[in-house]
Amino acid sequence: MLTKQINLRLTPIFKVNVDPKTEERYIGSLYTYSIGDDYYYQEDDQKPKGPQANVWNGHIIPGFEAGYGFNLVNVSHFDLATQTRKNFFEKPALIRTLYYPAYSNDTLHYKPVTRNYYLISAFDEVTNKDGMINPKDLRRLFYFDATASQKKALLPLDYSVYRGDYDDANDYLHVFARKDLNGNGQVEKTEPIHVFWIDLKDPLKLGRLY
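Structure (tokenized):
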């Protein structure tokens, strides 16, 4: 997987699945989220003259490619310059969405958008004590720096990510998350949803909006 940092490449890691009837082995595939034509890449002969305010090249958040896959359990980070490799998670997790610096040249309000970090939403712990990591656990949102050596949970650990909305006027990500009020490690529809903001220009700047 190409990233904006030319020396950094990612490899998705999937759980190997075995068909119990045929014993055939198979893995998942990585897919990407995209948005409508308004922000799609256009061929050179179709581009209007002069700079464009918002060229997202189909990305749901400018500057980020957003990937997901069935049974995506980790991502390998390889530095071509130092020939070093590391996994984002020490133990397998169930990754819901991986945001990584897009290889394309995106713009926001006429300015280039370059991300030098990663965001991953994942089920990384058996929070409900049922013995396996699955979507019934709490979903966390993690920040990783460009080297994948600095990791930080961006929301309190008693919250589970529900969904997100991008605010392009401020380059903020609004994250909707349910609070695990009763502490049973899973979410119920009766539990409250709170909204957090994350400044994508500096994702360690964040707070609760509602």
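The mean pLDDT is 91. The longest strand covers residues 159-167.
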